[in-house]
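> forwarded from #structure-qc
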């Protein structure tokens, strides 16, 4: 799978709509990004932990706590990887040089 990079979503550009339903009893917030036409739905039900669902997720949803833990784990792993790449002699270190004498870092 290939995902193209884009500009980060700025929270101040998002539209929030607070919603409720009584079948089942739930409250939630729909978070909409008009620039990308992307919708997130964060829902809380009376006897269930909060969940988050993404508009293209085929009705799959994450437990918010578990999703947060997953993101924290990913960020931690990426940070450790980045630190290894920035170590002296590695390709993201600005003082590293190529065989032709040029800088490896962009």
């Amino acid at each position: 799978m290939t995902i193209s990079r884009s500009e980060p979503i700025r929270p101040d550009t998002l539209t929030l709509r607070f919603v409720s339903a009584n079948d089942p009893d739930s409250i939630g917030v729909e978070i909409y990004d008009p620039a990308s036409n992307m919708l997130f739905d964060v829902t809380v039900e009376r006897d269930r932990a909060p969940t988050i669902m993404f508009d293209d997720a085929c009705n799959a949803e994450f437990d918010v706590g578990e999703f947060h833990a997953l993101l924290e784990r990913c960020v931690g792993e990426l940070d450790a990887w980045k630190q290894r790449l920035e170590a002296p002699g590695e390709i993201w270190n600005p003082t590293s040089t190529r065989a032709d004498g040029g800088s490896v870092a962009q």
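QC bot note: The longest helix spans residues 64-85. The mean pLDDT is 83.
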